[in-house]
């Protein structure tokens, strides 16, 4: 699958010809996958929606976030495995690596590229959560779950092979009233089997 191309709103000012402006906030989406309103209750889920159409559900909305973040990293040079189709609440969705970060980690595409060094790769089953301003990925090969928390004064380099059992997505029945409403609306629960997690609460430079 070819990397998705950034798109901007029609009235967005264009950069001079031949110059790529990497200081503006990055927009990575396709018209087919543009953000849509989602339903907030399991009672509104419509599993009968035909394949290929938007479900407007919490399930598809969450997966769209993972997809967008994964494609941003892919555009920046990170090697990602292709997503796999899974069915939650009768809805077939693409499951990408579950990649999240706080806005403080990056706001623009140039900031993302400045925090990626060497050859980095993330497997499809992986989960990565970055919570800190100065977290750098350097020759990272992730196959599992990774969570980094750091204060602004901590500069953290994360690299090498990180492999563990990770977190799995378990499909649940949205009609089962014994399951909390928020999980039934989501369509799955996350089983945190194994992860590598580190918190840096002091200033300094660290290699992880």
Architecture overview:
- The protein contains 3 helices and 14 strands.
- With about 210 residues, it is of the alpha/beta class.
- The chain has one domain: UDP N-Acetylglucosamine Acyltransferase, domain 1, CATH 2.160.10.30.
- Strands 1, 5, 6, 8, 10 and 14 form a 6-stranded parallel sheet that branches. Strands 4-7-9-13 form a 4-stranded parallel sheet. Strands 2-3 form a two-stranded antiparallel sheet.
- Strand 2 and strand 3 form a beta hairpin.
- The longest helix is centred in the N-terminal third of the chain and has 18 residues.
- It is globular.
- The relative contact order is 0.15.
- The N terminus is likely disordered.
Total domain units: 1
CATH hierarchy, class: Mainly Beta
Give the strand content: 25-35%
Average pLDDT level: 81
Beta strand count: 14
Question: How would a textbook summarize the main sheet?
Answer: 6 strands, parallel
Region (Disordered): 1-24
InterPro entries: Nucleotide-diphossugar_trans
């Amino acid at each position: 699958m070819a990397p998705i191309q950034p798109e901007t709103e029609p009235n967005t000012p264009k950069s001079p010809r031949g110059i790529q402006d990497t200081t503006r906030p990055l927009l990575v989406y396709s018209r087919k996958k543009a953000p849509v309103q989602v339903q907030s209750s399991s009672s509104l889920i419509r599993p009968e929606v035909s394949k290929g159409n938007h479900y407007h559900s919490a399930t598809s909305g969450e997966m769209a976030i993972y997809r967008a973040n994964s494609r941003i990293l892919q555009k920046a040079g990170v090697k990602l495995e292709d997503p796999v189709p899974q069915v939650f609440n009768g809805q077939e969705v693409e499951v990408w690596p579950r990649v999240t970060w706080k806005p403080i980690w990056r706001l623009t595409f140039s900031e993302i590229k400045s925090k990626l060094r060497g050859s980095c790769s993330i497997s499809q089953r992986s989960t990565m959560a970055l919570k800190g301003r100065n977290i750098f990925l350097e020759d990272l090969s992730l196959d599992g779950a990774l969570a980094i928390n750091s204060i602004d004064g901590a500069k953290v380099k994360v690299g090498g092979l990180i492999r563990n059992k990770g977190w799995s997505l378990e499909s649940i029945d949205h009609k089962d009233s014994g399951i909390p409403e928020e999980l039934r609306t989501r369509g799955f629960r996350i089983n945190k089997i194994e992860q590598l997690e580190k918190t840096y609460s002091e200033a300094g430079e660290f290699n992880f």
